[in-house]
Design brief:
Helix content is 72%, strand content 0%. It is mainly α.
Length: 210
Amino acid sequence: MWPGRGTWPTPPSTRLHRRIPTSATHLPERWALFTLIVLGESVAAVAVETSGQRWRAASVSAAVLGFAVVACVWWLYFDRQASVSLRGSTMSIVVYSYAHIPLLLGLAAMSAGVRMLIDRASQTHFGAGPSVALLGGAALFLASLMGTRIVTTHGQHRRGVVLKLAAVALILALLAAQPVAAPLALASGLAVVLAGVVVAERTVIAPPSS
């Protein structure tokens, strides 16, 4: 049977979530644990790649910048994760879950980019592939993070979306500049952008309650 005019078939995942009760706080906890595992791989990538390099200024700087990028990503995701609660509707559960798929892919790509950053820190150009992995992965993470935040019950969603969209635009500008920018310059720009988002979220958008 074709759906009538003005109606659309319900996605199978939505019908499944309607049949299986899901806690508004338990689901974010499960996804947070999975995300923590992927972030742990990024930290391990920094350690493993650094151990295989000679202690040169470029490699050390790349490792520090890579760790700073991972730390900012961790902060953006986990800063208020304990208070995250979904709105309770079936669609919010579906959106929150599916938004984590590109989010985790972005983190995995960024982890690979960090490893290549340390390996190519002394080179003149980073290269298109590594730049897409590092910068594109970070942009995908931020874009997906927006999807997970707009279906929660707390937070100033509009300001958060505008802030993250601006950060994504800046990261894409860095990606466009990769043919003429050194690897450390790209990593420094990424670290500054992510640190700026962290500071803005802590001080402007949603200051921590005293």
